[in-house]
Design a protein that fits this description.
By secondary structure, the chain is α/β, with parallel strands linked by helices. It is built from 14 helices and 10 strands. The structure holds NADPH dihydro-nicotinamide-adenine-dinucleotide phosphate and 1,3-dihydroxyacetonephosphate.
Length: about 325
């Protein structure tokens, strides 16, 4: 019996599938397999990584019926519409949300969308500092597995850990997924600063103040502060704001440099900046960096104007 299924054959879904297939059969669903079955490689999203024989591929969601664990690794803004069409194929299992972001339409994170669409499922969140390419190459990686269920959480932690992929357990889904959502927005800001040539000191300041607003939002929404200090918050913020492998960072850097961003890349922080800005405004939470990123990506402000506005805010205690 196939125990693990993965929905979404993007870079992350494929990397997780390749890694988990070292321990047993895994089935990976894509809406369009293109040449993956023939090539036994995902040349479009994760080139250079052979797919092991224990990994099977399908375009038919009915083929996932034997899986007790389903990892959902779709882009955040696609998840709601996907679930509206396909939730019946997923209900009643352990569903692990792997998307990072906040849904623009509903203001919800991935775990809330899964729980709403699949009320009979046990929902968990897998998040933290990890580039798909690193996971796929078997490089050491540590992530957070958040699940409120005291029995399912430890079971998922054990079933989804591998010798190279070490999962730390949490019961704080809100904190785990808000860290992963906000860090992408701050990474765009960090990229803007570097692209505009404003220097490493400015980036360190943005990361630190970005962390402060991530924490403020998450605690307001019921998260535990220590979750944000962990892999899913600070850990992922550090990775994404400092690495050229991050699409969010590269997108911000292109904006800062006045050049064209890469075409076709999934840059979760763009829509999520708008979603979180609206959420924070409605709840009276001060999130100046996120608000500025939303304004710049929305074309309402230039990077230079945004930096001037951030520096001109009233002086305050740290
Ligand atoms: N890449 C990484 O290093 C990491 C990514 N993540 C998160 O994982 C999520 C997915 O990102 P990633 O894998 O990188 O994305 P990619 O850009 O690599 O791939 C996106 C995938 O989603 C598929 N897709 C898009 N819309 C739909 C839809 N409506 N129905 C079915 N499939 C769809 C695409 O299919 P098609 O090719 O047919 O368009 C494509 O396979 C994001 O939330 C990201 O933040 C988390 C950790 C690390
Ligand atoms: O989430 C990630 C690393 O943890 C991937 O970051 P990007 O989506 O910016 O590439």
């Amino acid at each position: 019996m196939t125990a693990i299924a993965i929905i979404g054959a993007g870079a992350f879904g494929t990397a997780l599938a390749v890694t988990l297939a070292q321990q047993g059969p895994v089935i990976l669903w894509a809406r369009d397999l293109r040449d993956m079955a023939r090539d036994r490689e995902n040349r479009a999203r994760l080139p250079g990584v052979p797919l092991p024989t224990s990994l099977s591929l399908t375009q038919d969601l009915a083929d996932l019926s034997a899986a007790s664990i389903v990892l959902v690794a779709l882009p955040m803004q696609q998840l709601g519409a996907f679930l509206a069409r396909n939730a019946t194929h997923l209900d009643g299992r352990s569903l692990v949300a792997c998307s990072k972001g906040v849904d623009l339409a509903s203001g919800k994170g991935p775990s809330a969308l899964l729980a709403q669409a699949c009320p009979g499922a046990t929902v968990a969140v897998l998040t933290g500092p990890s580039f798909a390419a690193d996971i796929a190459r078997g490089l050491p990686t540590a992530l957070t597995l958040a699940c409120a269920d005291p029995v399912a959480g430890p079971a998922l932690q054990a079933q989804l850990s591998t010798p190279a992929l070490r999962l730390y357990r949490s019961t704080d889904l809100t904190g785990a997924e808000l860290g992963g959502a906000v860090k992408n927005v701050i990474a765009i800001a960090a990229g803007m600063v570097m692209g505009a040539g404003l220097g490493d000191s400015a980036r360190a300041a943005l990361m630190t103040r970005g962390y402060a607003e991530m924490l403020r939002l998450a605690v307001h929404l019921g998260a535990r502060p220590e979750t944000l200090a962990g892999l899913s918050g600070l850990g992922d913020l550090v990775l994404t704001c400092t690495s050229d492998l991050s699409r969010n960072f590269r997108f911000g850097r292109a904006l800062g440099a006045g050049s064209a961003p890469e075409e076709g890349a999934t840059v979760e922080g763009v829509a999520t900046a708008r979603a979180i800005t609206a959420l924070a405004r409605n709840r009276g939470i001060d999130m100046p960096i996120t608000t500025m990123v939303a304004a710049v990506v929305g074309g309402e402000l230039t990077v230079a104007d945004a930096m001037t506005a951030l520096m001109a805010r009233p002086l305050k205690e740290e």
